[in-house]
Amino acid sequence: MKGVINGLSSLTLLSAIFAALLSSFLITTRNSNSLKTLLLASFARRRHHHGNSVPKADICCDFAGNILPPETNTTAVLCVDRNGCCNFTTVQSAVNAVADLSQKRTIIWINKGIYLEKVTLAKTKVNVTFQGQGMESTAVVWNDTASSSGGTFFSASVSVFGDNFIAKNISFMNVAPMPKPGDVGAQAVAIRISGDQAALWGCGFFGAQDTLHDDRGRHYFKDCFIQGSIDFIFGDGRSFYEACQLISIASPVPAGKKVINGAVTAQGRSSKDEKTGFAFVNCSIGGTGRIWLGRAWRPFSRVVFSLTAMTDVISPEGWNDFNDPSRDQTVFYGEYKCSGAGANQTLRAPYVLKMNDTQAAPFLNASYVDGDQWLLPFNS
Ligand SMILES: *[C@@H]1O[C@H](CO)[C@@H](O)[C@H](O)[C@H]1NC(C)=O
Ligand SMILES: *[C@@H]1O[C@H](CO)[C@@H](O)[C@H](O)[C@H]1NC(C)=O
Ligand SMILES: *[C@@H]1O[C@H](CO)[C@@H](O)[C@H](O)[C@H]1NC(C)=O
Ligand SMILES: *[C@@H]1O[C@H](CO)[C@@H](O)[C@H](O)[C@H]1NC(C)=O
Ligand SMILES: *[C@@H]1O[C@H](CO)[C@@H](O)[C@H](O)[C@H]1NC(C)=O
Ligand SMILES: *[C@@H]1O[C@H](CO)[C@@H](O)[C@H](O)[C@H]1NC(C)=O
Ligand SMILES: *[C@@H]1O[C@H](CO)[C@@H](O)[C@H](O)[C@H]1NC(C)=O
Ligand SMILES: *[C@@H]1O[C@H](CO)[C@@H](O)[C@H](O)[C@H]1NC(C)=O
Ligand SMILES: *[C@@H]1O[C@H](CO)[C@@H](O)[C@H](O)[C@H]1NC(C)=O
């Protein structure tokens, strides 16, 4: 599969990226021009490569090279630049170079650019940081789907199985075509996070159905941009989302039509003994379509939205029990001090908790994911 990236088909893949980006990403990001410019530049550069080769000095002149911190007793730094301006040209090759079960933190410094590759951090790759140059200028991009990869769980552009993963200022994208109604096997994950104690700061997650597989473990997300249509944050993680933008790209629904065509979350807690669930604080929800805040993928699905602004992209009933009324008794769906047209409680599903201060307290800070035990500040 990786072979297709070479030669002519790289142009086809780039065209696919353009198509997906133009139809979704570009119209929804706050500052989309920089990525568009970057894609155009990368496209032109690739074409150029097919003719005569460009001298390395020219390619490296925009190499940022401000790789911090320097190597110390507790930190190792590996550098990735797609044009060959430092030691690794792919993210995966740098990941492979990380010593197994290293107790040192390994910072993989990734220069700006689009990395067309499927990346896996095995269970042995612990304490790894992906440091990008900005979610609008650095991205790992692939396009597997459930059907092309043997199931949704294997479709991720980036899969993280190692514990103590950190990502900063980078985007994870799956640019497979957006599913049309009735399509089967079109789920396309951008990132799967299955390691414990992961922190993601200033990251972008781009896809349609099943964008962010928050699979298992305790995870912290801050200042992230998360785009999708159906179940775009799903899994059985215990996660805290702070100040994130959640953007639906579901098809617009004509006024007066009652159709629902997406959901922000599909949390997969399966028994009352599991401590999993998603807590959102100070986030915003917008975009297109008519979607639910969550649907009960498994019976004990748990999700709480607090202090979150919601447009009318959220349907009045707000939540869905996956057409299984017995789940109305077992789900834990709460809302606390949310605002905007989408937060109107008048027509909410009856099983939704309208939380008071006491009920909401456990879901309002990173102690929800035991952050005091492991979460380091952004600049550490
Ligand atoms: C991914 O893109 C390549 C190149 O355009 C294409 O050949 C392949 O079919 C795509 N895969 C999927 C699952 O859409
Ligand atoms: C790093 O390790 C060396 C060798 O063990 C030691 O001499 C040095 O003091 C250490 N430096 C710091 C900053 O801890
Ligand atoms: C590349 O690897 C060499 C040899 O290990 C090392 O000395 C150098 O610092 C590395 N450069 C970067 C930019 O990481
Ligand atoms: C490395 O990971 C282990 C668990 O996998 C963790 O206990 C340890 O604190 C981590 N070290 C650093 C430097 O992050
Ligand atoms: C990186 O992310 C942090 C945390 O969200 C943010 O404050 C910072 O502006 C970002 N830096 C860049 C270069 O995008
Ligand atoms: C909330 O929704 C109800 C029912 O649609 C509507 O009557 C009411 O005006 C809405 N409240 C606000 C504050 O928009
Ligand atoms: C919050 O709600 C719980 C459950 O309904 C109730 O027991 C408690 O008294 C309420 N607390 C406050 C401060 O209203
Ligand atoms: C986080 O919330 C808990 C309540 O669940 C509270 O006991 C704790 O003091 C809070 N921590 C901070 C730093 O605000
Ligand atoms: C959410 O925003 C409020 C008001 O700005 C602030 O007091 C609170 O600390 C924020 N909570 C988190 C978890 O960021």
Automatic annotation (TrEMBL):
Keyword Transit peptide: no
Keyword Metal-binding: no
EC code(s) of this entry: 3.1.1.11
Listed Pfam families: Pectinesterase
Domain Pectinesterase catalytic: 80-372
Gene Ontology molecular function: pectinesterase activity
Highest taxon listed in the record's lineage: Eukaryota
GO biological process: cell wall modification; pectin catabolic process
Catalytic activity: [(1->4)-alpha-D-galacturonosyl methyl ester](n) + n H2O = [(1->4)-alpha-D-galacturonosyl](n) + n methanol + n H(+)
SUPFAM superfamilies to which the protein is assigned, alphabetical: Pectin lyase-like (SSF51126)
Primary subcellular site in the record, as a coarse category: secreted
Function statement: Acts in the modification of cell walls via demethylesterification of cell wall pectin.
The protein, known as: Pectinesterase
Organism of origin: Apostasia shenzhenica
Gene from which the chain derives: PME8
